[in-house]
């Protein structure tokens, strides 16, 4: 990890001091965020923090390193999407070895542990940035605000996944390892309050456009904070605020729904609000999603379930453009093809970016929020915008119940294998226990939460009790 981080940090920082100080900063926060929480003398930590945040370039490099690690660690790239797709009804395991597909997780599962550790690592790094910037007088005010906003956005983004995967988890907003290693779990209500607080502050701090990143959409701006807030409010059933935040983004002229479906996931697509970019070739990898889902590249192949494939209507251009096929001689399987560029055969140009927030989702958030508020025509308009882009006619749903069902299916075929949308949708709408037993004989209601990693419980007994069913 250190070498990858160092490469990413010094790409735009030409002096050896920058590379050295950033490497040292990451080393320090890694030690503080690891499960053993080895004690480090406070004066050394303070010196490192002072050096990292004593100039604009060093501060920018420190924050940029978080994005590079998020991309390369796969926790927020293919792994989480893949495993949650298997855990729900999007993907099926063709090897018979996936405990996610079988819903037979245990507290000792390595992937579950990795998700937990990686996500908390990014929270710890964000906390380090926030503390460093708040203590610094050397970083210019405009940049300081932008970087503070980015750190708070990243922290909120991480907690969104933690609360939806594990429910009650510790809220960590400091780098004090003594406090963190004994932290108790907070309630979902408290966690969502923290998420909303961070995103509200991020909105006030972040830039309106992407001029701070030379036009690249690989770092969040105000619209990214609004988009994530809209999603959070939707999950909280705060329909009015979900609509307001979605509308803020949908009215922003720097975003447009991409007409060609094959262009949606390109770097800096007009539809993209926030992406993770591959800032260096990674051996020719554009996204790890392509490596994971395209059969010719995957070492552990998965396929789309028949239920998902059958959810597409006749004439839906998403089926033609976002689904690939593989035939083993006797059977044809479908796989995700939203990301199309693979490794192999040299080093292809980096043209695709892992897209976490995009305009298509915002139309569907607002459609659902409007339907829940009985704004039938407004909900139809937003739903039809997405349907028409896919080559489909306007919806026939004309009452709240049928419209909500139509929106749920549209989310399924528009947002499949992106950021765990399907799995989280089944949970937040209370449909998991009625839908998943139809395709998963071993399904149990307690499977709606991941187990707390056993190693973490051993280190911190205050994480008890274990989630039900484990």
TrEMBL record:
Pfam family, one: SusD_RagB
Domain RagB/SusD: 327-470
Sequence intervals crossing the membrane: 12-29
Signal peptide extent: none
Domain SusD-like N-terminal: 99-234
Tree of life domain: Bacteria
Record keywords: Cell outer membrane, Membrane, Signal, Transmembrane, Transmembrane helix
Places the protein is found: Cell outer membrane
Major location (coarse): membrane
Family, similarity comment: Belongs to the SusD family.
UniProt name for this protein: RagB/SusD family nutrient uptake outer membrane protein
């Amino acid at each position: 990890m250190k070498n990858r981080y160092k490469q990413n940090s010094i790409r735009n920082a030409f002096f050896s001091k920058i590379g050295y100080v950033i490497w040292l900063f990451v080393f320090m926060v890694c030690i503080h965020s690891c499960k053993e929480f080895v004690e480090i003398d406070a004066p050394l930590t303070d010196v490192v923090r002072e050096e990292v945040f004593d100039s604009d370039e060093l501060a920018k490099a420190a924050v940029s390193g978080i994005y590079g690690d998020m991309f390369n660690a796969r926790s927020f790239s293919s792994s989480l999407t893949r495993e949650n797709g298997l855990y729900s009804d999007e993907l099926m395991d063709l090897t018979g070895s996936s405990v996610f597909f079988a819903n037979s997780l245990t507290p000792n599962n390595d992937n579950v542990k990795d998700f937990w550790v990686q996500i908390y690592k990014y929270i710890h790094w964000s906390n380090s940035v926030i503390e460093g910037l708040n203590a610094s007088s050397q970083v210019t005010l405009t940049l300081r605000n932008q970087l503070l906003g980015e750190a708070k956005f990243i922290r909120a983004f991480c907690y969104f996944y933690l609360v939806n995967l594990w429910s009650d988890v510790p809220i960590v907003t400091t780098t004090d390892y003594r406090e963190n290693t004994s932290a108790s779990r907070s309630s979902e209500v408290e966690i969502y309050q923290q998420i909303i607080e961070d995103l509200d502050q991020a909105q006030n701090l972040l830039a309106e456009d992407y001029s701070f990143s030379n036009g690249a959409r690989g770092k969040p701006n105000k619209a990214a904070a609004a988009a994530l807030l809209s999603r959070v409010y939707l999950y909280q059933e705060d329909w009015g605020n979900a609509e307001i935040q979605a509308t803020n983004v949908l009215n922003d002229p720097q975003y447009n729904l991409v007409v060609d479906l094959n262009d949606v996931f390109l770097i800096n697509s007009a539809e993209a609000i926030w992406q993770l970019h591959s800032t260096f070739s990674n051996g020719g990898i554009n996204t790890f999603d392509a490596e994971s889902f395209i059969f010719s590249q995957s070492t552990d192949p998965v396929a789309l379930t028949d239920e998902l494939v059958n959810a597409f209507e006749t004439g839906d251009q998403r089926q033609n453009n976002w689904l690939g096929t593989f035939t083993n001689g006797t059977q044809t399987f479908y796989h995700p093809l939203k990301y199309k560029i693979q490794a192999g055969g040299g080093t292809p140009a980096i043209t695709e970016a892992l897209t976490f927030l995009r305009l298509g989702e915002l139309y569907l958030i607002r459609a659902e929020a409007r339907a829940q508020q009985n704004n039938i025509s407004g909900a139809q308009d937003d739903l039809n915008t997405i349907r028409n882009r896919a080559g489909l006619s306007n919806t026939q749903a004309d009452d709240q119940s049928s419209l909500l069902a139509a929106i749920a299916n549209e989310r399924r075929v528009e947002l499949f294998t992106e950021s765990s949308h399907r799995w989280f949708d089944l949970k937040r709408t209370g449909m998991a226990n009625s839908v998943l037993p139809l395709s998963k004989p071993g399904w149990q209601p307690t499977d709606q939460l991941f187990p707390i990693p056993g190693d973490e419980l051993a280190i911190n007994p205050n994480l008890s009790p274990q989630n039900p069913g484990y």
